[in-house]
């Protein structure tokens, strides 16, 4: 999954792909480098990020979705706003990726409505664990048992969707590295990543260029390609089926070696 931030303030590449033409060109580069899915986002969710209005988010993402809907790979909309989900699904995205795990008003209803409207094209759903919210999530996060608590949350949200008729194979879960977790919590989750795979859903690993890697290496955001790739391989080796990254070429090439070893 290639990350496409049509934002001015995302933590790693904010502002680089703010215009639709720049965002589309970046998507095309990621596809050429082997991305299977493009995750389009119009609002930064880095720690301390300020929310943007619905209209601002729509203005950022919908032109990109429209331009890429026939690009040959799956499109995901990275949003927690129900109306953005609705309009992006109508515009042709294949998947909703929600850091709030469909807990915002109307989000679950949008999925159900979309299923009823398009029974032959039911979207994928990725939802994440986050402690508190992006403004406060990194203020001293605490857990009694981070693995057990994250697993329980993800299982509960998946069960809710399944109770609404969403098939299990449409659901992917994301433990949420860096979203209300300390470095210790993040390393524990990576070490025991296979625990999330055991829940029976596809699991997404999203560690690309994150501050956990900066704390370990001392590298600035854009100098974290090597640890990002290493984290991706470690997660894949523990059962991750979706790897969300900024650096598609380097990650794809490394995964090819890892896959050859598995075979």
From TrEMBL:
SUPFAM superfamilies: Dihydropteroate synthetase-like. This is dihydropteroate synthase. Pathway: Cofactor biosynthesis; tetrahydrofolate biosynthesis; 7,8-dihydrofolate from 2-amino-4-hydroxy-6-hydroxymethyl-7,8-dihydropteridine diphosphate and 4-aminobenzoate: step 1/2. Keywords: Folate biosynthesis, Magnesium, Metal-binding, Transferase. It is an enzyme of class 2 (transferase). Its cofactor is Mg(2+). One of its GO terms (molecular function) is metal ion binding. Its EC number is 2.5.1.15. One of its GO terms (cellular component) is cytosol. PROSITE patterns: DHPS_2, PTERIN_BINDING. GO terms for biological process: folic acid biosynthetic process; tetrahydrofolate biosynthetic process. Pfam families: Pterin_bind. It catalyses: (7,8-dihydropterin-6-yl)methyl diphosphate + 4-aminobenzoate = 7,8-dihydropteroate + diphosphate. It comes from Polynucleobacter duraquae. PANTHER family: FOLATE SYNTHESIS PROTEINS (PTHR20941), FOLIC ACID SYNTHESIS PROTEIN FOL1 (PTHR20941:SF1). Residues 1-256 form the Pterin-binding domain.
């Amino acid at each position: 999954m290639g990350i496409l931030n049509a934002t001015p303030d995302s933590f790693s590449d904010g502002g680089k792909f703010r215009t639709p033409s720049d965002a589309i060109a970046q998507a095309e580069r990621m596809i050429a480098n082997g991305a299977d899915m493009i995750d389009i986002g119009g609002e930064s969710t880095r720690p301390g990020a300020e929310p943007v209005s619905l209209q601002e988010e729509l203005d950022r993402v919908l032109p990109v979705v429209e331009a890429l809907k026939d690009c040959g790979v799956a499109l995901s909309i990275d949003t927690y706003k129900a109306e953005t989900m609705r309009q992006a699904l109508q515009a042709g995205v294949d998947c909703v990726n929600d850091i709030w795990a469909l807990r915002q008003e109307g989000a679950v209803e949008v999925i159900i409505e979309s299923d009823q409207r398009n029974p032959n094209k039911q979207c994928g759903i990725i939802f994440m664990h986050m402690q508190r919210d992006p403004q406060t999530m990194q203020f001293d996060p605490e857990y009694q048992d981070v693995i057990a608590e994250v697993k329980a949350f993800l299982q509960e949200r998946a069960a809710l969707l399944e109770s609404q008729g969403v098939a299990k194979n449409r659901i992917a879960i994301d433990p949420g590295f860096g979203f209300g977790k300390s470095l210790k919590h993040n390393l524990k989750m990576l070490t025991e990543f296979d625990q999330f795979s055991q829940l029976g859903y596809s699991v997404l690993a999203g560690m690309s260029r994150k501050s956990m890697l900066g704390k370990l290496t001392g590298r600035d955001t854009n100098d974290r390609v090597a640890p990002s790739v290493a984290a991706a391989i470690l997660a894949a080796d523990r059962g991750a089926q979706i790897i969300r990254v900024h650096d598609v070429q380097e990650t794809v090439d490394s995964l090819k070696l890892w896959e050859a070893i598995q075979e």
